[in-house]
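Workshop exercise sheet. Pairs work together: one partner reads the sequence aloud, the other fills in the structure field after running the prediction. Swap roles for the next sheet.
Pair: D.N. / O.F.
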Amino acid sequence: MAKHSRKTIGLLVTGVTDAYAEALCRGVTKAANNIRMNVVVVPGKYINRDTLDLGPLKYEYQYTSLYSYIKETNMDALIISAGSIGAFTSESKLMEFLAQYVHIPIILVSSNYEGFRSVSYDNEVGIRNGLVYMIKELKCKHICMLGGPDGNTDVLERRNAFIKVMDEYGMELGEYSYIPGLLSGDNREACTTLIECNPEMDGVFCVNDYAALSLYEEMKARDLVPGVDIQIFGYDNTVEGAKADPPLSTISADPVVLGSKAVSAVLRTLGGEAFTTEKLDAQFVVRRSMGQKVSDDTFDGQRFLNEMSSDQIFDMVFYRYRRSGQDTATTSVYSTWTHLIDCFSDLSSISISDDAIDDEIRTSYHRFIDSGALDYADINQLLSYFQQLEKTANANKTIDARERVYRLMQEFYVDVARRMDTQVGIAREQQVENVESIKQFVIDSMAVHSDDVANYESMLISLNHLGVNNAYMYMLDKPVKYGVGESFATPESMKLIAAMTDKNIVKLEADKEVSIDDLFDNETMKESPHKFVVVPLFVEEVNYGMLVCDLSDSMYAYEEFLSSHVSNMIGRMVYKADR
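Structure field:
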């Protein structure tokens, strides 16, 4: 791609609408923007997945056509979520898939395969800490693992870490101590087997948070309570896990950080460095799925303050913050939070009241709140942590000093409640605005004009309601019909039938052909860095082409809806023209 003015990174993922992929995308796009590189996100779903019996997902295989447009002539480097993409295929088939990109520098994320550079989390350290906590602190005697599909390197590493710790502590493993499942979380059968074949099971490590949440569902159906009847922890620290009831203990392997590190690895590789593999530290995060709250009689305040790092506490309460792509270490939310915790640590170390410390805590609290922290906080987790801080502050104090701590904390609780009431109102207004935006997008996109070009242009203009200012609609010379398991034939060029740059429609010559080499950097695009997502256009078995547009915040929620809606409109237009 030397002829293009700016280097382009392709990010190959299974989608942009799930929490993991969104976080990975945000990490990659922010890091790439900082170094003025283009990013093209290719949400091609799962290769070799049999979708025939998946009902509404029957034609999801059409998304995999997007992978065929990625060439060494239009990409300078690729970041590939290989483990996710290959979740429904064999390792040999996944290697065949990766082989088509052999002439492009590749960085794999969360997967380690021989011959490929990769950035991933160290599976063993976090898992070891979680299992040792189960064994030593919770006194679990019969620990099992709910795993994932064979052939996935992450699954294998997590299983090996589990077996290694169990062997080290003399924990006997039976025939059904490890049950393979799915990474997607649809694990009803696996969870049933796990529970019924292990009646004495008191602890479970789940291969990821989605698997753990499927175990939650099966336990609920059997009147079993996570954290009471069975101790559970997962992996990935997803928003869904943190918001579960009870909140899920997990291994924090932040995809935002992973994405940022992958971009750094791309730079080092393009710079000629002999980069191979980078392992990131993963942290164990304890929540209520591994034991109920400690009683007042046994609460150890200093241990509470010391047992988790500031980063772990921050991830527990502000998991939304990292998922938003923010740089935690350089922002006021993080710094004011850690200063507030330091003040409580000072308060807990003395046995009498101290006006100076009380005032410093009040000042720190208001700085923390004014930083916008509540926009990202899990309020249940925040209030729960405040309660633990209150216990810590009250330890070994006189009655008068405890009363002052009580009044201080009541100020905070009341203030949080008032602010949350306001925040709920703002959230409702935002929800109304989002619904209105979608409604206006649908209305405007369906405007009928006398010629097809004007109709296509209306579709692009309507994307403004989804925060999209740049969009380019490519069509195949003729629609291609192909089914599950069949290969998609990649054309040498496509027709650019409509283009919008900076919200303005670009007038094109009739039947303008664009080479595959220039799909993501054509002459109608502006020079500033692109942050694009590729959207397939298809109706059932018929593929019409694709839409390349801005990866706006709305696209993380509505990309699949957009694909379906625009595709159906194009399908009707093509059908009408053929009659």
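Discussion prompt: The mean pLDDT is 86. What would you look at next?
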